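Please check this.
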Amino acid sequence: MIKNKNVMITGAAGFIGSHLTEKLLKHANFLILIDNFNDYYAGKEKQLNDILSNYKQNSDYLLIKGNLVDESTLKQVEHEPDYIFHLAAQAGVRYSIDHASEVTYNNLVSTVNVFEYALKGSSIKRVINASSSSVYGNPLYTPVDENHPKNPISPYAVSKLCGEIYANLYFKENDLPITSLRFYTVYGPRGRPDMAIKKFFNLMFQNKEILIYGDGTQKRDFTYISDIVNGLILASEKINAIGEIFNLGGSNPVTVNELIDKMYNIVKAEKKIRNIEKQKGDVNITHSDISKAKKILDFTPEVNIDTGLRNQYEWQKNYYK
């Protein structure tokens, strides 16, 4: 566990970033938190401020509001980090299809700027680069290992694959200690509004109809947020992880139909669903082979889908009220 270190987290107000912030603050780390607080979805600033309310600016953390595509943002950092977790990105597969230039520019330029900043540091032990299972596209086989061919089918997925290529370049040509992690469908409290589970619960609370893209037989490898945070920290600690790429997933996919049945059983509401045309950019199945992460990182997902859904329901019910 990282303790008493200087740690930079980009995208600190986001879903994953806020959970990592919360975890690391509890272990006497000084955090350099960077976020542009864009308007992609509301509530990010409040959720981060709620976490920071028990800590002191400049003593426990430094909060920088700025966009990483602007090099002046990183010039505001006053404490050289020991670790960098680069989580900032313009998210959303479907959003990227309609905003390809924006997503490409934001995700690639911000990533290169972070790597360039890291090159200038003298004490940086690890840079963790957040990637996505979307780089695989529709898999040729499952479960999908890290050597599976890459076939991204959305601008967001392409931007994540390019980020990995840049990470590999900076590792091989500059000896920058980088590790990339491919996340599989992360869910849990504080999830983004565009995430399926959060949307579905909100619609159930309102007794409204849920729209299912396609026939609902597509499978997703859902991964609970605490398992992702654990994987991030493990990847920063293992020396054998440097220069490597790892899948982080629950490795137990369920169909969308099964997911919705589980959710309705929790909410105990009348089922209201309607199937519509499959969306562009959606893959048929995600299923992670996490044997490499288990072997090198000692990563093992601990929260199954039933427990995770119950946790999210309890949080979201109170949040919704």
Q: What stands out?
A: The two ends are 35 Å apart (CA to CA). The CA atoms of residues 179 and 242 lie 5 Å apart. The chain has a mean pLDDT of 95. The longest strand covers residues 126-132.
